[in-house]
Amino acid sequence: MQTLTRKRIISWLHLLILATSFGWVVASADEEAHSEEGHITLTPEQVKHAGITLDRVGPASIRETLPLYGQVVPNALRQQAVSARFPGVIKSVAKQVGDAVQRGETLATVESNESLKSYPVVASLDGVVAQRSANVGEQTDGRTLFVIGDYSTVWVELAVFPADLSKVHVGQPVRIETRDATVTGKGKIIAILPVGSSTNQTTTARVLLDNPDRQWIPGHFITAEVFLSEAVVATVIQDKAIQIIEDESVVFVAGDEGFEPRPVILGRSDGQVSEVLEGLRAGEAYVSTNSFTLKSELGKEDLEHDD
């Protein structure tokens, strides 16, 4: 049986307190784990090493969400394309791609073709040099010499398929997560773009996302959850308590005779908790952590009976 970290292993004394609180009886230390009339009993040592903990069926809020995929892009309202005011020759370049700049800081110096006087090309916002196409000795020719981006905020563009479009609205909160789930953030939908994609028939929902630490990199793909609704449900359990046994959702209920595997019918879920429609009553104690241990013990009993 798997041994868990010390942090997650409850002491036997704590276990006895839980047993008293929940009206739960376990086997004595010198008894083996066994199943009797559909109930499983474990020795205190087995329970201790399995890190089994209990919770009670009760009310909780369940949020309905819509999972979507998308991409981080620059906030176009916080970008500046910098060109020279007058045609001329580039005499010096002060900034490179990736350099931080402040508003009013010189990016390059240009000598005017008409007056032959030099003047500075400056940034008009704080940010980072995202592009540079200025080299000493070149003519400016009215082209863009630098692109400055302020990435303290970014946009996230979510692809919404036609079947889901009616569910998405401006102002809805959105949870954003990197593909490796190492960075999360929250924003709100600020626009539903009027023109869709002819390639995959999706419509873009745009989210404004704060990015003070520049963890969100334009060009990177993300996953998102749009919050649609929230409801308080009377009978809710943690999803990690649910085991699948013979194609049924089962929760292990703690009682006087041990642990009873109880089939349940589930309703709404937000990925963390689920509504119980049938099989459990409000207030009942159930195994919320490491219920897979009990499923394993149940499987052992089935093998012994087959023999």
TrEMBL record:
Coiled-coil ranges (or none): none
Record GO terms (molecular function): transition metal ion binding
InterPro entries tied to this protein: Beta-barrel_RND_2, BSH_CzcB-like, CzcB_C, MFP_Cation_Efflux, Single_hybrid_motif
Protein's name in the database: HlyD family efflux transporter periplasmic adaptor subunit
Key words of the record: Transport
Annotated GO CC locations: outer membrane-bounded periplasmic space
GO terms (BP aspect): copper ion export; plasma membrane copper ion transport
Species this protein is from: Halioglobus maricola
Domain of life: Bacteria
Domain CzcB-like C-terminal circularly permuted SH3-like as annotated: residue spans: 237-295
Segments forming domain CzcB-like barrel-sandwich hybrid: 79-149
Domain called CusB-like beta-barrel: residue spans: 153-225
Lineage: Bacteria, Pseudomonadati, Pseudomonadota, Gammaproteobacteria, Cellvibrionales
Similarity comment: Belongs to the membrane fusion protein (MFP) (TC 8.A.1) family.
